[in-house]
Amino acid sequence: MNNFSIQYPAYHIAGILQNDFPKRDDFSVSIPLSRQRKYYDLLLHKADSKKCLAIQVESSRTYVNTNAADSDYHYTAWLNNFPHNSYSGFYLIFIPFPLFDSNTFRRRAGQGLHILVFDTNEMQTLLSNIKITKKGTPDKFFYFGFNINDNRIFGTRGFENSGQEFTSNLYPNKLNQIRQAFQ
Questions:
Q1: CA nearest to 129, candidates 161, 175, 88
Q2: Which whole-number Å values give the CA distances from 109 to 54, 90, 121, 135, 153, in the listed order?
């Protein structure tokens, strides 16, 4: 018997997708039975058009930068460089972070979340443009930075153009693109 499991980031994103792509509009979200499934973590299906969209979920570790002198950003989301595949229609990067009071920097109860969305071409471009180290290999990591009271997000490590803005890739800004993939 197969022990069914799903990692929390994919589970959380599946719930968000179910809210934004509801059953009443003929959408369904499916997950593979194997946790080790290559190329996708979720499938978003639209029954009336018989179209299916494979989604790869990547998760970051997020660090708090309490000393503003060390960093321009309150938070740093850290990801391992990973191989790109052309089978997924979209990549969703799950970035959880603890909430803090912006004046006292004391922890508040609650968790914040950013989800970055890249279509397969955008992700291929992003990953192929990761900075090359002195050894001649792509950097093993790439980072995104963001602040407490700001809805903008920036590439901070691994990018040729450090400080490149990725705000347009936040989930609310990419919903229409995902919807258009079903037309």
A1: 161
A2: 34, 32, 38, 43, 23
Distance, in Å, from the CA atom of 76 to the CA atom of 92, rounded to the nearest integer, reads 17
How many domains does the chain contain in total?
1
H-helix segments, the chain: 8-20, 120-128, 171-180
Inside any domain, residue 49: yes
59 vs 144: CA distance, rounded Å: 12
pLDDT in tens, 121-180: 999 988 888 877 778 777 888 999 998 878 899 998 888 777 889 999 999 999 999 999
Owner of token pair 């006292």: 104
Question: In this predicted structure, what is the pLDDT of residue 1?
Answer: 47
**Is residue 102 included in any domain, yes or no?**
yes
Q: Identify whether the C-beta of residue 42 lies closer than 8 Å to the C-beta of residue 57.
A: yes
* Share of the chain residues as helix, strand and coil, in percent rounded to the nearest 5: 20, 40, 40
Does any domain span residue 106? yes
Burial of 28 (0-12, 13-18, 19+ CB in 10 A): middle
Count Cβ atoms below 10 Å from residue 53 Cβ, excluding itself: 19
